[in-house]
Amino acid sequence: MARVRLAGAGDVFRIVDMVEQLRATIRGAVPVDPDWTARNVAALITGSDSAVWVTEGGFIAGSLQPTIINPAPVAMEHGWWATDGSGLRLLRAFETWAKDRGATLIQISTGPAGPDVTRLGYRLVEQAWVKSWQSSVTLRPPPSGPV
Known about the structure:
This protein has 147 residues and is of the alpha+beta class. The chain contains three helices and five strands. A five-stranded mixed sheet has the order 1-2-3-4-5, with helices on both faces.
């Protein structure tokens, strides 16, 4: 059984590699910028309202934040990927963390062919639709952009 643990600085580049695998698998519309991704993963690892967990072949990253309609904290998943059968254990670690920190709900996403998580107590409340104006989108963050 894969051991779930909090990620550290030494995990950042391995997580970036998994983000690349995730994007390829779900045919994500936005290409991965490895430097930008590494900076954001590092910020999630060290943030006071965020966390990242890893296993040998998986990760989940999330943060607490209010929504535009309510200041109550919502746990937002920013990436979730596993090739070693640890996906559910990673999700449970995120859920426990979120509940312990007062999150009112958890928002996760799965790819179009991802697992049905209704059996875990989740319900589908919206779908994400993506439109791209270029066949090969290259997005770069501004030099002073958020991390």
